[in-house]
Design a protein that fits this description.
- The protein is an alpha/beta fold.
- It is 48% helix and 13% strand.
- The protein is built from 12 helices and 7 strands.
- Strands 3-2-1-6-4-7-5 form a 7-stranded parallel β-sheet, sandwiched between helices.
- Helix 3 (26-35) packs antiparallel against helix 5, helix 6 (104-117) packs across helix 7 and helix 6 runs parallel beside helix 10 (227-241).
- The longest helix has 37 residues, at 51-87.
Length: 276
């Protein structure tokens, strides 16, 4: 009631408590420390006369401040992105779809890789933290400002929307009986790559909807690597297959082409020589 009196609606409070964008924010911490005191001293302080109103005022102020900073960052992002694209037009036909990735640090690392690979866009789905989340920006080291991105509540809807636009959607996941070894996969253009949650991977419904599944060969005991590392590996493998070089910028990104199908793989070439 105290929050509502000060202008914080029920929907805004739910977003503050449930959205990945607000997790760990000053408003979130102020609310939680009051509602869930961690010591007897904190509980006694919370029960003091007038404390409720003071905390409610602080939560509402911090929430409004965060919303204003968010809006300012997005305006600056749009301007920075437009200026960067004007100076260096064209992007590679690559899209990242992040399926409920929980770590803001992993998201920041992936945005940094996406900027370096000059992808078309990054879709941040479900609980995936998005810029201008402080930890995302810290890990991205300034790269987030140069990456087109959008939020989506549903990874499955995002995948289907990309497919409707003619984009092939592949997941990076170890999927026995279906996944193709990255060393043997012929990655199509345009391509959207789905990367999944750090613990459970890509959602099974999303996997079923994907056009293909690619896996990175593993040789250790754990049989897995960090999701940001995996994403970077597959992104650069796609660029390698499409024969993107340092001269691609000067030649125009739209002129790049894949010659993978034109050249036999080494083992096939060897078999052909033996046959002759």
């Amino acid at each position: 009631a105290e929050l509502a009196v000060r202008g914080l609606s029920g929907d805004e409070l739910a977003a503050l408590l449930e959205s990945a964008d607000h997790r760990g924010s000053p408003a979130f911490r102020a609310y939680n420390s009051f509602v869930y005191p961690k010591s007897e001293g904190a509980l006694a302080n919370a029960e003091k006369a007038g404390r409720l109103a003071t905390v409610a005022q602080a939560v509402c102020f911090l929430h409004r401040e965060q919303k204003a900073e968010h809006a300012t960052w997005l305006r600056n992002h749009d301007r920075t992105l437009a200026e960067a694209d004007a100076a260096n037009p064209g992007r590679f036909p690559l899209t990242l779809v992040l399926d409920n990735i929980r770590s803001a640090h992993n998201v920041g690392s992936l945005l940094r890789a996406a900027e370096a690979a000059r992808v078309e866009s990054v879709h941040l789905c479900g609980i995936t933290p998005a810029p201008p989340h402080a930890s995302v920006l810290k890990t991205a080291l300034g790269a987030a400002e140069y990456v087109p991105h959008e939020r989506s509540p549903s990874t499955l809807a995002t995948v289907r929307g990309l497919q409707a636009r003619g984009v092939a959607v592949w997941a990076a996941e170890t999927c026995p009986g279906r996944s193709v070894d990255l060393r043997e996969a012929a990655l199509p253009q345009p391509l959207a790559l789905v990367l999944g949650n750090e613990l459970i991977g890509v959602d099974t419904q999303v996997l079923d909807a994907c056009d293909g599944v690619v896996s990175i060969p593993m040789f250790g005991v754990k049989n897995s690597i960090n999701v940001a590392t995996a994403g970077a590996i597959v992104l650069w493998e796609a660029l390698r297959q499409w024969e993107v070089s340092a001269e691609a910028e000067g030649a125009g990104l739209g002129q790049m082409r894949s010659q993978r199908a034109e050249r036999p793989r080494p083992e096939r070439a060897e078999a052909s020589r033996r046959a002759r």
